């Protein structure tokens, strides 16, 4: 189904207004790719027809679905490996020292745009390893947020495929995941309990 320039600008403006996501002209083919299945499934005759439906839906569900489809959800465990190494070796010791100096016993982190949870769980593994190795006397918590309700559902479930966990060291898979026996792995409560997943549009 063809997306006209006018239709693209209508969708582009709606996405920018409601979600703060800017779609450049180069993203036009991406919009077609991500929305086409939705149009076919809903029986829409054009992108204009779909746009009208989203604008008329008073429940807000159609708009949420649009946001889910448009937002980028590509992620994997320890995606920015250097960042996690910095947190573990530099940031954590300094933060723990500062927190304890203030007489506090909690340290909270925010995983913004957490997608399907891999980043938040990666951070939780780093914090768990640090606790085991250094016994800092500080309790860690993570707030993980995303605008997409569908990826947050996956994140809360904490279930990942063999392929998704294949990047992890074997020790991490054993220590932080339960194998479900159907090619899937579920995050253990020892790290999921410190993460709170919430919907938030940055």
Tally of distinct domains: 2
The coarse overall form would be elongated
Counted beta strands: 6
What is the CATH architecture annotation of the largest domain?
3-Layer(aba) Sandwich
Strand proportion:
5-15%
Structural class: alpha/beta
CATH topology of the largest domain: Rossmann fold
What is the name of the CATH class of the largest domain? Alpha Beta
Cα distance, first to last residue?
31 Å
Enumerate the spans where pLDDT stays under 50 for 5 or more consecutive residues.
Answer: none
Main sheet summary: 3 strands, parallel
Mean model confidence by pLDDT: 91
Q: H/E element string?
A: HHHHHEHEHEHHEEHE
CATH superfamily of the largest domain: Vaccinia Virus protein VP39
Figure out the total of helices.
10
Residues in helices, as a percent range:
55-70%
Q: Radius of gyration, rounded?
A: 20 Å
Order of the strands making up the biggest sheet: 1-2-6
Characterise the protein shown here:
The protein has about 200 residues and is α/β, with parallel strands linked by helices. It folds into two domains: about 5-70, Chemotaxis Receptor Methyltransferase Cher, domain 1 (Orthogonal Bundle); about 80-200, Vaccinia Virus protein VP39 (Rossmann fold). About 55% of the residues lie in helices and about 15% in strands. The protein has helices at about 5-20, 30-40, 45-55, 60-70, 80-100, 120-135, 150-155, 160-165, 170-175, 190; strands spanning about 105-110, 140-145, 160, 175-180, 185, 195-200. The chain has a three-stranded parallel β-sheet. α6 links the parallel β1 (about 105-110) and β2. It is elongated, with a radius of gyration of 20 Å. The two termini are about 30 Å apart.
